[in-house]
Every structure is written in structure tokens, then in C-alpha cells.
């Protein structure tokens, strides 16, 4: 039996090739969009949703996150405040990784996926790190994501910061999950932490895996200065030069950050058609610098938006991306509404190799649709003002309805399939236990034996 859902009379921000925005309606059959119609109409369906007074967008795509980062929210960390990004890894993230077990991975995946869904993100690319929970951990993350109901690329972040073997174990877990993932909403990919925590052999093995299974490979690159110094000192090369020489860059490669890069490196990113995940809020938090995104865009580099496991509200990340480059360049013309909306939809889908089926509202694409209904509309909401509303004023709480794979998961701002109070209670108990263990974790993790 076919199930149909229609979304009627909304301002549709299509993100199609022509970037059309118009008043219209959408018909969904099972998990696909089958009709997109301009003008006032009511498309008959089993479930008809009135979207008047609303903006209708494709499901947003977050190209870089760490779902388990959500466990840091309000965490009682007793530590000397880090004075740079590397200390941030040593004092916060690495003890956090080492404390993670399978249950922590599950509850963080579930709650983070719900936060993403609540603000309209329907697909994400996650990398998990936890040296004491490697084999099988991606199944626990999958369980959490599937309970929430959204789509994900999930992966284990391979690193040799503790031992060479552990790096390859991480890759093995990625391969196991890539081969195993059966649900159409879930995908595996390859993840490598960063060039400064791995040898060349692991980088090459990761790329081979990505090529073998035609899945994305993602790596933190040139986030802080440490990455650059490490590669200059050990290899006599800047970070992207080393990755280029090893054959790591390419169309299936998604680098997170690319902050500490020069023009030569940008040319390598552009010529290899490598994609970039830009994480403006995280870059500010970690004080690593500002990625040269306007330059990347003018060179034709595919830039997308990630949240890096920090703030999960889709619109806060969009807005930060819109603003940070203006003040950096002292030029308010830098970054347009359309550019930041592309970066959070179609560009992010392209970065993950799924632009043929997600990232825009078009007949034939998978039915991931978001209805945003601003409670207060002080100015006319129409096809001319929709971009301005989305980038300048909307936040996650304005998201009214979210449809993923043809299924209505959020309606009237409420979760349809989920008892959120029950999940909050469960999370509170589990995370309190995680925090107790984290408090005991070593403040100092050995930097590198590389
Ligand atoms: Zn990251």
C-alpha cells in the first residue's frame, strides 16, 4: 500500500539547480517526493499538511559532527583551562574519548540525533572516538540514530596517538560497519582523526578503504596550528601538501576545518575536488582561526557546514557562517543568504556523495522535508523574504514539522514517535554516571609517539 503525504501552500525553498523559491505544494509517496507544484493548490493525500505561513526547505545536512560531543554540555570538568587547541584535545577531548563506553555512545547518539531533528537537520556525518570502545560501537550509535529516525553517516575516528595497532582497529570497525549497514537511512564511511595523530600507512589504508567501497573519507585537517607545525617539522610539507602527495585528496574526501591553509593549499583542495566541512562556531570556541571560506567559494571549492559536536541547532550554525566572514573581511557583502543555505543543504549532500537523492526539494528525491513556521512574522513572508527569514531570524524552535524518508517525525514542534520525557530521564541517569567516570579520567594524555 502506498502512503501519501502532501505539504500544501508553503513558501518552498527548493535548492534545485535554478535555486527556485515559490509558493507551492509537495506530494510525497512512500519515501520519495513525486510532485512539486507551483501556485495555490491542495494536493490530495492520506495526510495533508497545511504549510501556509511557513517556509518549506529540504532536510538540512550537517557535514561534520561528533554526536558524543553532546555529553560535554554542562560537564563538571576540573581542569586547568587549555590555552590552545592542542591542550584542548589533551585536557578535554582525549580523556573524554577514553572514558566512552558503548552505552555512552548509544545515549549520546540518540539525544544528539533528536536535537538535530528538532531543528531540521535530517542527515549528518558523525565521527566517534573511543579507544576503549572500538569493535561493535558503531552498532550502538546506529541504534540511537534509528530510534530518533534521522539519516546518518557514522564512523570510527581512527588514530595512532596511543598505538599503531589501535589506528588499524579503528579502520577495521569502519569496514565492518560499511559492509554491514543495511538500513537505507544509515551509511558507513571512513574517518581518520587528523594528520598529526597518524602515520602515512594509516592514511593510505583509509583512502584505499574509501575507494574500495565508494564511501566518503573524512579527516580533520589544518584545524589548529599544531597540524601545520607537525607536518612542516616531520615531513617538510604543509598539511595539504602531505595529504596531496599521499593521494588522500579527491572527490570522496571531506576535510573538516581547513583553517590554517595558504593559497597553494587552497589550489590543491580545488584541483582535487576535495570538499570542506566548515565549523564556524567550533572554530570560535577553540580559537583556532577563521577558515578562508570566501576564497574557497570563489575558487569553486565545495564548502558545507558542520557543527563539530558543539551547538546542534541548525540555524545557529548557518547564522555563524553568515556572520563570521563579514567581520573577518570587514566587508558586509561577503557571504550571501543563498551561499550559506547551499552550504547547509545541497553542498553538504554533494560532500557526502548523496546530492543525487538529497539536499533539495525536487520530484524523484528522497522525502526529507522541513516546515518552518515562525511564530511571529513582523514582515510579509513570501518567496522574496524566505532566505532573509531563514538566515537572519529563524531558530530551531521555529521548526514545526520534519519529514524524514516520507515519515513525519516532528509535528507542531513535538516528537511524533518519541516520548522525550522518558528519554531525558534515561539520559540524565546514564550521563551522570559518565560524568563521574570522566572526573576520574587522567588530565594528561600522552601527546604523540609519532
Ligand atoms: Zn571534529
Verbal overview:
It contains 15 helices and 18 strands. The protein is an alpha/beta fold. The strands form two sheets. Strands 1, 2, 3, 4, 5, 15, 16, 17 and 18 form a nine-stranded mixed β-sheet that branches. Strands 6, 7, 8, 9, 10, 11, 12, 13 and 14 form a nine-stranded parallel β-sheet that branches. It is globular, with a radius of gyration of 21 Å. The relative contact order is 0.17. The model is unreliable at 444-450 (pLDDT under 50). Zinc ion binds next to loops. The site of zinc ion has 5 residues, from loops.
Unreliable segments of 5+ consecutive residues: 444-450
Overall, the morphology is: globular
Task: Estimate the helix proportion, in percent.
Answer: 25-40%
Would you identify the CATH H-level superfamily of the largest domain?
Metal-dependent hydrolases
Largest sheet: 9 strands, mixed
Supply the helix-strand structural class. Answer: alpha/beta
Q: DSSP helix count? A: 15
DSSP strand content: 15-25%
Domains, number: 2
Give the bound compounds: zinc ion
Please give the alpha-carbon distance between the first and last residues: 58 Å
What CATH calls the topology of the largest domain is TIM Barrel
Please give the radius of gyration in angstroms. Answer: 21 Å
Average pLDDT, to the nearest integer? Answer: 95
Q: What is the number of E strands?
A: 18
CATH architectural category of the largest domain: Alpha-Beta Barrel
CATH class call of the largest domain: Alpha Beta
